[in-house]
Amino acid sequence: MESTIFKIEVNSLMGNSAIKQATSEADIIRCWDVIKELRPHLQQSSFVQLVRELMNEGYQLDYIEEEGKAVSAIGYRYVQYLFNGRQFYIDDLSTLPDYRGKGYGGRLLEHVFKLAQKKGYKYVSLDSGYQRHDAHRLYLDKGFILASHHFIKIL
């Protein structure tokens, strides 16, 4: 039986920049600016604790850096559903504005695709806000399909 907590060692070289796995507090802090770009409602003071809690639930945060600065990051986790089985779900994918157009987001997606294939998963899924047209173009270019609507009820 597959555990919902997973651990994959990451240090893959792609292009000139390595994809690194955030494991230490310093790594998580290094990703703050990138994640804040996507999730501006988060507070820096609670960011490390929140990411650690997510990691305890199976979340993994990988990133690409330039000159010691994280410029792109992807957060994902193992999930399993009755309708389509085991897969990785991408919670977060973000690149700092000054570093967009360099292929970092696409490289991080390909990285997660390879990890999923290695584990025998047939799917990688994500949700994306309607207004994120540039992101949608990337997802469609990488072979994602619009498979459903995601509904949420605010309580």
TrEMBL record:
<protein>
    <submittedName>
        <fullName>GNAT family N-acetyltransferase</fullName>
        <ecNumber>2.3.1.-</ecNumber>
    </submittedName>
</protein>
<dbReference type="GO" id="GO:0016746">
    <property type="term" value="F:acyltransferase activity"/>
</dbReference>
<dbReference type="InterPro" id="IPR016181">
    <property type="entry name" value="Acyl_CoA_acyltransferase"/>
</dbReference>
<keyword id="KW-0808">Transferase</keyword>
<dbReference type="InterPro" id="IPR050680">
    <property type="entry name" value="YpeA/RimI_acetyltransf"/>
</dbReference>
<dbReference type="Pfam" id="PF00583">
    <property type="entry name" value="Acetyltransf_1"/>
</dbReference>
<keyword id="KW-0012">Acyltransferase</keyword>
<dbReference type="InterPro" id="IPR000182">
    <property type="entry name" value="GNAT_dom"/>
</dbReference>
<feature type="domain" description="N-acetyltransferase">
    <location>
        <begin position="17"/>
        <end position="155"/>
    </location>
</feature>
